[in-house]
Design goal:
By secondary structure, the protein is an alpha+beta fold. It contains nine helices and seven strands, in the order H-H-H-H-H-E-E-E-E-H-E-H-E-H-E-H. The chain binds zinc ion.
Length: 234
């Protein structure tokens, strides 16, 4: 089983402070470091099948260390099930090959007002605790002459949600992706989500939610933001 490489060795050898904070403090405060999901350069040198095999072995070790009996019929299949779920489902958005293919169309209807796709339900996972983030995304754009199918807005949200995430990065990744795709700066994304690492553990606050936004181009104008909020609340 080949689980170590340079990055893992470096991780195991260091516990330096970042702006005076330990890694634990950064994770617990859900701070994040950049727009790109931090990935190793060789992230896709091994196949999905190899990844699943290794994750299953490692997850079996975690269960074993916790004292669970892997010979129990109910637990036996769990390591494989978790490995498959990680690679094929909940973290499938890490692999660029799973990025949705999006075709652009001419804006034949000459519709030049904002288009809002609201209440897109998504499930993601907090990269600091690996527990779910559940929320709704509202996505808006003003066509520069090109449009995409409405379901594609949903697919882009799902693609970036299926990664270990922090909500700010998820919001910005969706926003910048749509700006590139639609060839316009006029894109807005609002995400309203619940983090299970906040509600089910830690401070155990079940009623709080986190709202983040990305406003580009004409959406930086307060009147456009008000208009967008009216659409969302309608
Ligand atoms: Zn968390």
């Amino acid at each position: 089983m080949k689980i170590t490489d340079n990055t893992l060795d470096v991780y195991l050898a260091t516990e330096e402070l970042i702006q005076g904070l330990t890694h634990d403090e950064i994770g617990d405060d859900h701070l994040y470091t950049g727009l790109e999901t931090p990935m190793k350069k060789n992230a896709f040198e091994i196949s999905d099948a190899e990844k699943k095999e290794t994750i299953a072995q490692l997850f079996a070790q975690i269960m074993d260390v916790m004292g669970l009996d892997l010979n129990d019929d109910s637990l036996k299949g769990t390591p494989n099930r978790v490995a498959k779920m990680y690679i094929d489902e909940i973290f499938s958005g890490l692999n660029p090959k799973n990025k949705p293919e999006i075709a652009l169309f001419e804006n034949k209807y000459q519709y030049n007002q904002m288009l809002v796709e609201k209440n897109i339900t998504f499930y993601s996972n907090c990269e600091h605790h690996f527990v779910p983030i559940v929320g709704k995304a509202h996505v808006a754009y003003i066509s520069s002459g090109k449009v995409i199918g409405l379901s594609k807005l949903n697919r882009i949200v799902q693609y970036y949600a299926k990664r270990p995430q922090v909500q700010e990065r998820l919001t910005n990744q969706i926003g910048t992706e749509l700006q590139q795709l639609l060839e316009t700066k006029d894109v807005a994304v609002i995400i309203d989500a619940k983090h299970l690492c906040v509600s089910s553990r830690g401070v155990k606050d079940d009623s709080s939610a986190t709202v983040t936004s990305f406003y580009g181009g004409s959406f930086e104008n307060p009147t456009k933001i008000t208009e967008l909020q009216q659409y969302i609340n309608a």
